[in-house]
Amino acid sequence: MNDQYSLGKIRRLKIKLTIAIGLFILVIVSGYFIFSPLLLRQKILALSLNYNKSAVFPNNDLTVDDWNNLPNDFIDKSGDTIGGTLDMGGNRIINTVHPPTINSDAATKQYVDDNSGFYGGAAQDQSGAPLRYVCGETPHTCPGNPTNWIQYSANTVYVDIDTSAAGFGSTPWYFTSLGGSLSHYLSRGATSIYSSTPTGFRVYVTYINGNITADTAKCVYTWYINWCGIGQ
Length: 232
What we know:
This protein has 232 residues and is α+β, with helices and mostly antiparallel strands. The protein has two domains: 2-73, no CATH class; 132-231, Immunoglobulin-like. The chain is built from six helices and eight strands; from the N terminus they run αααααβββββββαβ. The strands form two sheets. Strands 2, 3, 5, 6 and 7 form a five-stranded antiparallel β-sheet that branches. The chain has a three-stranded antiparallel β-sheet with strand order 1-8-4. A hairpin with a 2-residue loop joins strand 6 (194-197) and strand 7 (200-207). The chain starts with a helix and ends with a strand. 12% of the residues are buried. Mean pLDDT is 78; it is low at 53-58 and 117-121.
């Protein structure tokens, strides 16, 4: 009888001792998290396992110093400031919808496509519609791929310039000049535009120092047309 009483008492003492030890550990741990030099937000995030630094620390350990520096190690998706280079590792940044307003802002592909070729701000027509600026030149490699000058008269040649790659939806304003290796300063007409359409135009060039053939314009003088189009 006494032995059974003693055994029961010992069991109750063990249970009380276990509870006391558990409470003691809980108090110590709670005190550590309450009074340690950690921000409350960092403690909550660390305890809820919202941080995983295994990619940086192979043993996946978070020390006190790690917790104190968590805001410097991760980007807050609600908004943050990067203190160094951000390497995307070949991945894209998508869904950027706001157009740039200051020099350091990023620009989307759509914004660049709509405003390519402009310096000092996007251009607009009189109604305020945005304009595109596209430039090119006719080929001038001879032999091989010279500008396709065609004889018009004894001292005049012409060329049809294809601008379809520019993708204009309506006829733009075209601006031209004549380039070459010889005698283009003895010409006139290169800046006069004929038969302009959204996909091209024609230029007649007259040699003012005598006669000229299309072959001479192609491969002796190596004449070619520089052009720019501004439109929509």
